[in-house]
C-alpha cells in the first residue's frame, strides 16, 4: 500500500493501528503457546513447582512452537514476495508500450 498520499497525521494513525495489530498478534501467539504447552505438559498439581519431566516437556513444546511459527513466517514471506513479483510483472505487461 502506498502511504505517500496520506498526510503526517494519517500516516501516524495508520502506524499506530499497525503496531496495535502486531501487539495483538504477538499476545495471541504467546497466549496460545502458554495454553498449549501447559495443557500438554502439566498434569500434577500436588506441588507448586514443575517436575523435571514437566519442565522438560514445556521447554521442548516451547521450542517446537517457536520453530513452527518461524517456519510459517518464513514461508509466508516467500509467498508474499512471489505474489509481489507476479503483480509487478502483470503491471509491467499492462503498461502502454510494454513488449509482450
From TrEMBL:
GO terms for molecular function: metal ion binding. The keyword Zinc applies. Residues 16-77 form the Tim10-like domain. It is a peripheral membrane protein. Keywords: Chaperone, Disulfide bond, Membrane, Metal-binding, Mitochondrion, Mitochondrion inner membrane, Protein transport, Translocation, Transport, Zinc. The keyword Methyltransferase does not apply. It holds the Pfam family zf-Tim10_DDP. Its main location: mitochondrion. It is found in: Mitochondrion inner membrane. GO terms for biological process: protein transport. Heterohexamer. Belongs to the small Tim family. The twin CX3C motif contains 4 conserved Cys residues that form 2 disulfide bonds in the mitochondrial intermembrane space. This is Mitochondrial import inner membrane translocase subunit.
Amino acid at each position: 500500500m502506498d502511504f505517500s498520499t496520506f498526510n503526517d497525521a494519517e500516516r501516524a494513525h495508520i502506524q499506530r493501528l499497525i503496531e496495535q495489530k502486531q501487539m495483538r498478534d504477538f499476545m495471541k501467539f504467546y497466549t496460545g503457546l502458554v495454553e498449549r504447552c501447559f495443557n500438554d505438559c502439566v498434569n500434577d498439581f500436588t506441588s507448586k513447582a514443575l517436575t523435571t519431566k514437566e519442565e522438560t516437556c514445556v521447554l521442548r513444546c516451547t521450542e517446537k512452537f517457536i520453530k513452527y511459527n518461524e517456519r510459517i513466517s518464513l514461508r509466508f514471506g516467500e509467498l508474499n514476495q512471489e505474489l509481489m513479483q507476479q503483480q509487478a510483472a502483470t503491471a509491467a505487461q499492462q503498461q502502454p508500450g510494454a513488449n509482450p
